[in-house]
């Protein structure tokens, strides 16, 4: 659980709270787009939906506060935690997912190169496609997103919920 803030778009200096109370902040794998996200809901409203990119940096700015810039959303997010331990756990997971995002980006670029490079034609003239049904139809979205919404109860310790690449998502609570 963390208190969520965004930088004031006018001053670019002051923090504006986006939640009235501490909320669950989760890491999420979007299999449709092959990207990792940081998601947080306040009730039914998404207050964070940030795609993790390989060049993002999570910075601890105090013992219980950290931030990262999301250039796609044109904002800076800040998280206030109840303890230094929770902040450290979030920062560790941020690094893990940042690395996973880098690997996913490399893998998708390899696929793009394969699809944009003319393939060798077989004797029958067929061109082999590297795409599989799994790479076209994402299936995890429907199962993971409701789970993010369900877990709004406060917990004393962070829970271990699956990391997508190990089938155990993780969320900071």
TrEMBL record:
<comment type="similarity">
    <text>Belongs to the Homer family.</text>
</comment>
<dbReference type="InterPro" id="IPR011993">
    <property type="entry name" value="PH-like_dom_sf"/>
</dbReference>
<dbReference type="InterPro" id="IPR044100">
    <property type="entry name" value="Homer_EVH1"/>
</dbReference>
<keyword id="KW-0175">Coiled coil</keyword>
<dbReference type="InterPro" id="IPR045027">
    <property type="entry name" value="Homer"/>
</dbReference>
<keyword id="KW-0770">Synapse</keyword>
<feature type="region of interest" description="Disordered">
    <location>
        <begin position="105"/>
        <end position="173"/>
    </location>
</feature>
<dbReference type="GO" id="GO:0014069">
    <property type="term" value="C:postsynaptic density"/>
</dbReference>
<dbReference type="GO" id="GO:0005737">
    <property type="term" value="C:cytoplasm"/>
</dbReference>
<dbReference type="GO" id="GO:0007216">
    <property type="term" value="P:G protein-coupled glutamate receptor signaling pathway"/>
</dbReference>
<keyword id="KW-0963">Cytoplasm</keyword>
<dbReference type="Pfam" id="PF00568">
    <property type="entry name" value="WH1"/>
</dbReference>
<feature type="compositionally biased region" description="Polar residues">
    <location>
        <begin position="129"/>
        <end position="138"/>
    </location>
</feature>
<feature type="domain" description="WH1">
    <location>
        <begin position="1"/>
        <end position="101"/>
    </location>
</feature>
<protein>
    <recommendedName>
        <fullName>WH1 domain-containing protein</fullName>
    </recommendedName>
</protein>
<dbReference type="GO" id="GO:0035256">
    <property type="term" value="F:G protein-coupled glutamate receptor binding"/>
</dbReference>
<dbReference type="InterPro" id="IPR000697">
    <property type="entry name" value="WH1/EVH1_dom"/>
</dbReference>
<feature type="compositionally biased region" description="Polar residues">
    <location>
        <begin position="149"/>
        <end position="163"/>
    </location>
</feature>
